[in-house]
């Protein structure tokens, strides 16, 4: 349901799977694996150490990806400020908070919560960026919100006595 909502939020006319869309799908799959891995291995007392390791890996990957085109440093104070904010707040601090939170929440709940990012982006675009509130934005956002509610409500449901809740092979 959340995936359908994200599709509705991001679709532009006919369905086409080009290079950019393919990269986005691969990135989404890798991010899903990241969420599952953090859910399995993240412990509250290890959040800082895991965050540092993740940041080191991200640094190496970004460095390797940047080397072929050359490294270009910011040229103005405003650019340096923006870069430092993105690196420290949107990067390091956000990664630490995510790692810490995933030590306390199941991966499914984390994935659904994180799927709200484009919903918030659309809301901010309408509120602050002059975007139009369209039926596409409303339907896509409603589907993502509904997915969050379903996960929360199903997670709270208690099995009825005698009900089979899992199968073993």
Structure description:
- This protein has helices spanning 2-10, 19-41, 47-66, 77-102, 107-114, 117-128, 135-156.
- The chain is mainly alpha-helical.
- It is globular, with a radius of gyration of 20 Å.
- The mean pLDDT is 81.
- Amount of helix: over 70%
Give the SSE string: HHHHHHH
What is the beta-strand fraction? under 5%
**Which ranges are low-confidence, i.e. pLDDT below 50, for 5 or more consecutive residues?**
none
By secondary-structure content and strand pairing, the structural class works out as: mainly alpha
What can be said about the biggest beta sheet? Answer: none
Rounded Rg: 20 Å
Query: What is the straight-line distance between the termini?
Result: 29 Å
Number of helices: 7
Number of strands: 0
Oligomer: single chain
Mean pLDDT: 81
What general form does the structure show? Answer: globular
Question: What is the element layout, followed by pairings?
Answer:
Layout: H1 2-10, H2 19-41, H3 47-66, H4 77-102, H5 107-114, H6 117-128, H7 135-156
Helix pairs in contact: 1-7, 2-5, 3-4, 5-7
Summary of the model, kept short:
The chain is built from 7 helices and no strands.
Observed structural traits:
169 residues, 7 helices, 0% strand, mainly alpha, globular, single chain
């Amino acid at each position: 349901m959340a995936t359908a909502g994200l599709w509705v939020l991001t679709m532009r006319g006919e369905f086409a799977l080009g290079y950019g869309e393919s990269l986005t799908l691969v990135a989404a799959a890798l991010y899903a694996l990241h969420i599952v891995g953090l859910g399995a291995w993240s412990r509250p007392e290890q959040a800082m150490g895991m965050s540092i390791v993740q940041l080191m890996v991200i640094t190496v990957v970004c460095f390797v990806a940047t080397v072929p085109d050359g490294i270009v440093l910011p040229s103005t104070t405003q650019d340096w400020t923006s870069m430092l904010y993105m690196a420290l707040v949107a990067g390091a601090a956000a990664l630490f908070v995510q790692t810490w939170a995933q030590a306390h929440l199941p991966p499914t709940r984390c994935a659904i919560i994180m799927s709200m990012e484009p919903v918030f982006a659309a809301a901010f675009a309408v509120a602050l960026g002059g975007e139009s509130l369209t039926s596409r934005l409303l339907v896509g956002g409603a589907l993502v919100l509904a997915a969050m509610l379903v996960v929360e409500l199903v997670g709270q449901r208690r099995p009825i006595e005698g009900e089979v809740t899992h199968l073993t092979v």
